[in-house]
Amino acid sequence: MVLGVRAIPFTFVAHVLAILGLVLVLVWTLDFRGGFAWEASNKSLIFNLHPFLMLVGFIIIGGEAIISYKSLPLRKDVKKLIHMVLHAIALVLGILGIYTAFKYHNESGIANLYSLHSWLGIGIIALYGIQWLYGFLVFFYPGGTIGLRSDSVPWHVVFGLTVFTLAVGNAAIGFLEKLTFLENTGLAKYGSEALLVNFTAVITILFGAFVILSVLSQSPAEDDENSYSAI
Question: Smallest Cα–Cα separation from 177: which of 103, 118, 124?
């Protein structure tokens, strides 16, 4: 804990931003981009799964997993289980989201892994997986010694926030990259879709900021023993 303020207002704003991000990405992919498909002659429908899964599945669910210790009035063991399960869901959906990008590229005859966004994405999902596996083995099952858990907590928090911050930044790069491609093929630079994509990226960044503020702030006084720092 760094900030001398309560976490609840920050977690509330994060929840609101998460809902807003979900709505915006659905409006973009369903209304402007035509919806989703796993198999389609219009390969763009396959790609549409990528921003949806990465934002909602990876970043939003992952962010909610991070702040679960500050937003849920539950026992520490219950919070730890929720924290672990939400991160597992985020990891699986993130991997699926990356797979959809490869699927779209392969079926469209587009090269893979040529952009900074793709390089960072592979690295981030790998680090996320390592973080989850280490947390599972040390904090959940089979569980490390008290000394190991105590020594691991600050590194677990810092590493987790670092990976999450990288994910949020890479999502912003992804929105920029896709919007640039669309504008180069005729999309109006000041049109409603361009503004929607930019606003979605801004909401994503704000969500990440409030997740971090939540972690750095205080848990309710009656719940200090169940805070993130006591995993």
Answer: 118
Tell me if the bond preceding 142 is cis, omega within 30° of 0: yes
DSSP 189: T
The angle, 0 to 180 degrees and rounded to 10, between the axes of the packed helices 8-26 and 192-216 is 160
Determine if residue 206 is left, alpha or beta; phi over 0 gives left, psi from -120 to 50 gives alpha, anything else beta.
Answer: alpha
Which is it for the CA torsion 72, 76, 81, 86, positive or negative? positive
Amino acid at 173: I
Q: Which residues contact 71 (CB under 8 A, 6 or more apart)?
A: 7, 8, 11, 14, 15, 214
Q: Give Cα separations from 122 to 51, 98, 167 (angstroms).
A: 15, 8, 10
Nearest C-alpha neighbor of 181 from the set 101, 125, 99: 101
Confidence (pTM)? 0.92
Model confidence pLDDT, tens digit, residues 196-211: 999 999 999 999 999 9
Count of CA atoms in the C-beta half-sphere (13 A) of 203: 21
In whole angstroms, what is the distance from residue 42 CA to residue 109 CA?
13
